[in-house]
Amino acid sequence: MASEKGKVAIIGSGLIGKSWSVLFCRAGYEVYLYDIDEKQVSNALSGILESLQELEGKGLLKNSKITSAQEAHKLVHGCSDIAEAIEGAIYIQVCKINMSILMFNIDQTALFAKHARDV
């Protein structure tokens, strides 16, 4: 499901990464969630759906662009390739404390991806 709002990359799929993913998909952004640990990404995707279902159950999705947990969850994609996650992203949210970050232009994703792989 492509989003008209754009693509957001979330680097790190722990508690903070999951929280950012919920925030962005509720707002209608396509989210690519990256982590070096594929099992962590899988667990995060399940946790994101649970969070969205809880929000829906409490009526808290009514004021967002997305009105159902399933609709929002379809916007979230897990990936184990950082280049795929950040390619074409209009925003990158880094949630890994131990990751060295370069200041970069969003158009220079290959440089960022190469650096991230080398860390």
TrEMBL record:
Domain 3-hydroxyacyl-CoA dehydrogenase NAD binding: 7-87
Organism: Paramuricea clavata (Red gorgonian)
Single GO molecular function: L-gulonate 3-dehydrogenase activity
PANTHER family cross-referenced by the UniProt entry: 3-HYDROXYACYL-COA DEHYDROGENASE FAMILY PROTEIN (PTHR48075), LAMBDA-CRYSTALLIN HOMOLOG (PTHR48075:SF1)
Record-given protein name: Lambda-crystallin homolog
GO BP of this protein: fatty acid metabolic process
